[in-house]
Every structure is written in structure tokens, then in C-alpha cells.
Design a protein that fits this description.
2 helices; two-stranded parallel ribbon; DUF1684 domain-containing protein; alpha+beta; DUF1684; five-stranded antiparallel beta sheet; about 200 residues; 9 strands
């Protein structure tokens, strides 16, 4: 099985997050929306032509499907560092185990409720955190196995921006040959996150 490229688009997503801070507005800012659109176009091009694309039949690939950008799902979360930093055994879709460090809990309010998600850290990624989550859209509008986010963070920070508009599918959503981390049970949201990437219909 091929390992899922969890952080493959992380650098581009970090650039977008910087733009989010710069162009904050009450509605979806035009500059932010253009950057989101450009990122999605670039990702489609990568999936169509790159040798590293998870798409098997590139000739029939058109584009990925997304929810429209919505700042309602762009949230500043409070961080609570995990005191027990023992590595967490994260199971993968092929039955293997990945060891990731428990870094912090992110707490935020959405849809009238408070939510808490566990943020993980890979030894290879010093400046980003990994968030794997499920929500009420899985198996309907979005991939049944959940989605991922790569999050920029600063050591010692008490807050962190979570932008679900940047949520993306693991490579397993496109190709069963990949091995992908399964979101921890504690990261199961009981609300619908109608933002980010939708499900992909395999050919």
C-alpha cells in the first residue's frame, strides 16, 4: 500500500491561511475567494497530469468537487496543550498503525455548540499540525472516511485558525491502493461541516 500524502498540499494551504488573516471581512473576501479558487485549479491540474497523482484514470478525470467558500466555517480556536505527549497509535485504512504525537486540543464554537478536536504532530513536520476529523456529511456529501486539515501553528500560541474551507480528502478517497490514517474517534463532529472538498466518484 502507498502511504497517503497527508501534508502534500500543506505549504500551499499555509499560504492561503496567511491570506485569510490579511483579508478578513464579514463576507467571503474577493481576494480570499480567488486564492481558494486558484488553489483548487492547481490541485485539479496536479491530479490530471502529475505522476504522483492518486487518480488511476487521468484521461477521464475532470475536476474535484467542493462546497462554496464560506467564512462561517473559518474559526479561531483556543488551544490547550496536551500534557501527556505519548505518541498516539493512529490506525490506517489497510490495518497498519501510524505513530503521531498528541499536541493540543482545539476548542471552538460552531452551530451553537462547543467542540473539541485533537491536533496531532508528525516528527517530520515542525511547523504544521495534522487534524483528521469526521462530521455529519461523511458518506453523503463528503468522503465516508473523513477529511484532513494541515494547520500552521506557532509554539506557545494560545489560539489557532481552523478553516474548514481547506478540508481535503485523503488519497484513499481516490485510490484504494493508498494507506490513510483514520480520524480518531474523539474527532467525530456531530454537526455537518459543509465546507471544503466533497466526495469523489471513482471511475
Amino acid at each position: 500500500m502507498k502511504a497517503s500524502r497527508i501534508y502534500f498540499f500543506g505549504i500551499v494551504l499555509v499560504i492561503i491561511l496567511i491570506l485569510v488573516y490579511t483579508f478578513a471581512d464579514t463576507g467571503v473576501n474577493d481576494a480570499y475567494e480567488r486564492e481558494i479558487s486558484q488553489f483548487r485549479t492547481d490541485k485539479n491540474d496536479f491530479f490530471k497530469s502529475s505522476a504522483d497523482s492518486p487518480i488511476k484514470n487521468k484521461a477521464q478525470f475532470s475536476q474535484l468537487d467542493y462546497f462554496p467558500p464560506d467564512q462561517h466555517y473559518r474559526i479561531m480556536a483556543a488551544l490547550q496543550l496536551v500534557t501527556d505527549t505519548a505518541r498516539l497509535k493512529v490506525r490506517t485504512t489497510d490495518g497498519k498503525v501510524n505513530l503521531l504525537t498528541r499536541y493540543a486540543y482545539a476548542t471552538f464554537a460552531l452551530e451553537g455548540k462547543e467542540h473539541r478536536l485533537l491536533l496531532l504532530k508528525s516528527a517530520e513536520e515542525d511547523d504544521r499540525l495534522f487534524l483528521a476529523f469526521t462530521d455529519a456529511t461523511n458518506g453523503f456529501d463528503t468522503y465516508g472516511g473523513g477529511r484532513y486539515l494541515d494547520l500552521e501553528y506557532e509554539s506557545g500560541a494560545e489560539q489557532l485558525m481552523i478553516d474548514f474551507n481547506l478540508a481535503y480528502n485523503p488519497f484513499c478517497a481516490y485510490n484504494d491502493d493508498y494507506s490513510c490514517p483514520i480520524p480518531p474517534k474523539e474527532n467525530a463532529l456531530d454537526i455537518a461541516i459543509k465546507a471544503g472538498e466533497k466526495n469523489y466518484a471513482k471511475n
